[in-house]
Amino acid sequence: MKRPSLNKFDANIVRITAMLQTNSDTIRLDFAKALAREVGILAREMQKNLGRVEQKGHQDYVSEVDRNIEAIIRDKVIEAFPGDVILGEELGGQTGDSLWVVDPIDGTSNFVRGQSFWCVSISYLRDGKPVVGVIYAPATDELFYSQAGQGAFCNGAPMRVKKVNNESEAVIEIDWSPSESPEELISMLAKFLKAGFEFHRSGSCALCLANVANGKMDAYWEVFTKPWDALAGYLLVKEAGGQTNDFENNLFENQGNPIVAASSELFGKIVKLF
Q1: What are phi and psi of 202, to 5 degrees?
Q2: Was domain 167-271 assigned CATH 3.40.50.10490?
Q3: Closest by Cα among 200, 220, 206 to 263
Q4: What CA–CA distances, in Å, run from 90 to 54, 60, 83, 106?
Q5: What is the architecture of the domain spanning 7-157?
Q6: By CB distance 3.0 to 4.6 Å, which of 39, 123, 185, 208 could disulfide with 173?
Q7: Which of 68, 101, 79, 104 is nearest to 204 (CA)?
């Protein structure tokens, strides 16, 4: 599959690059919003002709589209911010004080099956702290974004987590890593069900976290997830008034961490189960 270009986006890159006179996080937010939308639209077109699909591990897939989209993101980031570094799911990279963490297609298993629940996830960290988070869901044309201390938004509208007090009213999104034992997953699901929760498993950590931030889902739990899967959504939930565990703690040293995200009322009840 020949790697596509983003001609429509190139003019934006030129204009944004010309604006770069400071290390403004706002400039990076605007850049990430434009880039996520453009590559998301492109990926949705490319979904019609996937090219080669490989299985990286148990129920873990990568397509040519994943790699091509990540390569485009990398090229555009380096063009606009040559001093920044990038870490991505498919092409690796490095960490640093001015760091982009990207998942070109979060929910690849859904994507390669022609389903719509997947997204582009882009986060930016300054001095190890996430300060920009952007998630774009092409199927619904929803652009979720946040900047540290500035709130969280979907297509320009402010987002707030849904306040749910009772487990019997709550629906929690869960995910499971093949590196964990099935017995552990079953044990945890039993605890959720006994407490009164309903649960879903939709297959995209980033988009599930965005839906928690937007009040469409009550909570999210995963025993272990990678930085690129969760960082953008983690910031969205926090900026939307939600509560999370300290997902950032030794994140890159551990190559991932557990994540719990919910309203403050529900968060404590989830944590008490474990």
Answers
A1: -100, -20
A2: no
A3: 220
A4: 12, 12, 21, 11
A5: 2-Layer Sandwich (3.30)
A6: 208
A7: 104
